[in-house]
Amino acid sequence: AWCVALPPSAPTQMGAALPLALASALAATDPSRAPALDADALVIGAGMAGLGAAAHLCRAGYAVAILEARDRVGGRANTLRLPRSGLIAEAGASWLHGALPEHNSLLRLAKQIALPTRQGNDDTSETWALQLTKGEPGVQRATRPGAAEDRSWQCCARAFSEHLKTAASSTPEATPLQTLFDSWARVVPAPLPLMACGDLNGRDARFWAGCASYVHAEWADLEHGVPMSRIGVRGVAEGFPLSGPNDVVDPASGGMSTLADALLQRALGAGSACELVTMAEVRRLRVNASSAPGEAGVVADLADGRSLRGAFAVTTVPLGVLQGGKVRFEPPLPRAKQEALGALGVGLLDRINRVYSKRFWGRDAPGNWHLVVPEAPPAKAWGARGAELAFWNAARYGAVAPSGEGGDEYAELALFLGADTARAWEREPSDATLVERADALVRALWPHTHSAALVDAAVSRWGRDPYANGSYSYLPPGARPSDRSALCAPQADRLYWAGEHCSLANPATAHGALDSGEDAARAAAARHAPRKA
């Protein structure tokens, strides 16, 4: 009952019911009997990158077949309408990061289609200290640290962030973030410039564990979906240029899927020669580097035996799926691409959306609750782990609806799980059990005020999603941004690459994915003309 969730409206699945003009291609199970070309271009995937590529090509007059393995568009952006409350909730991509029109192409799109957005993070927060259950993915106890102690943890974390920003460029590429923090904690200068932290030297194990837990949350567990020990310092530095507020689509007006729908409508608009083919899982991409004009440069073989041919293709297959080997390439990928594919990493961030019959946490409650773990191994005071959990007060940013019960309103409280905690929770097969586990955490935080009924819940499991295999990319120790470029370089001027993992300016973001798709489409269009031109 807790995990039933419906799409917000028909447009999020509008492609599933479209008539298919590519009948000859879809009926041909024998590739040798299919026509020379089924489309000018094949676009593999209908997430933000694929839809961006398709919209650009379709509006330029290309006939495009968009091949999507799911029964919906949007990829890792998936907006749900929860059945009992009617509230809109995001299961995947949630924020428009760096939400300034000059920086964020999805924000520009929202403005073009008059889709309201609103602030989704205002830096208001409270902190809870957790004692984790040993050997189990649960919380034994939650307490509020004293205000002075919490300020000291946050101040220490800010001080390390300043150090990170100055040290990142000179730190060896193979250095994990954990190593940099450990070395800094041993020799931290006192007093710290511009930081009213007092003398950080001589602090006890609880202090350094609390500080480390904040750093985990800000730069690793809940930012990249990976522990500090598995992300490189250079990988963290990729996010430095991203500036501006973090906005959300106004929940009263739609969600991230509304933006995906708008891109699809641009691709399939009046006069378009493009088609969306859902439930089309690509298992093999065959690249013909010697194809002549009018001949197939790329053949996409589907899981059900069908094949489609295009003069060229744009693949937006997620990094986790590529690393899992679910898509074969013929000929095999060049060595440089294979090495780059192995160098990059995929983090995990899941979300459990929860809707209650009233906002028991208070109308003036902050936007976030930081959950920290001020415990440390006795031999290494600064080797603490992060909580890998955080609550986001979605109701503060518009996720409310009238309940019709005495003036109360339905209100959403979202629990985010990152890194190893997310993987541990995903091993539990029952969504209902995960919802109960999250509810136990809520009761631990609000033991005297949790009187509201749980109305709706929805659980995301991006690590177990066969068409995602994770949430977004990051750079492990030793990897570098040039690995993104090597993996995503055009192949034989026939196969072009896009996705958030291809973005150098905005990796691991939805608008970075969109920008990469448009860039790949422009590169392909510069080398291939549409047949009807």
Topology of helices and strands:
Blueprint (H helix, E strand, L loop, with lengths): L22 H5 L11 E6 L3 H12 L4 E4 L11 E3 L6 E3 L14 H8 L4 E3 L5 E8 L6 E5 L3 H21 L9 H11 L17 H15 L13 H5 L9 E3 L6 H12 L7 E3 L4 E6 L10 E5 L4 E9 L3 H5 L4 E3 L4 H9 L1 E3 L1 E8 L11 E5 L16 E4 L7 E3 L6 E10 H8 L4 H15 L8 E6 L12 E3 L6 H8 L6 E3 L12 H16 L8
Parallel strand pairs: 1-2, 1-12, 2-9, 6-16, 10-13, 12-22
Antiparallel strand pairs: 3-4, 5-8, 6-7, 10-11, 11-12, 14-21, 15-19, 15-20, 16-17, 17-19, 18-19
Helix pairs in contact: 2-8, 2-14, 4-6, 10-13
What does this structure look like?
Helix 4 (about 145-165) crosses helix 6 (about 205-220) and helix 10 crosses helix 13 (about 480-490). About 30% of the residues lie in helices and about 20% in strands. Strands 1, 2, 9, 10, 11, 12, 13 and 22 form an eight-stranded mixed β-sheet that branches. Strands 6, 7, 15, 16, 17, 18, 19 and 20 form an eight-stranded mixed β-sheet that branches. A two-stranded antiparallel ribbon has the order 3-4. The chain starts with about 20 loop residues before the first helix and ends in an 8-residue tail after the last helix. The chain is globular and about 70 Å long. Strand 3 and strand 4 form a beta hairpin. About 50% of the residues are buried. It has about 525 residues and is of the alpha/beta class.
Write a brief caption for the model:
With 533 residues, the protein is of the alpha/beta class. It has 14 helices and 22 strands.
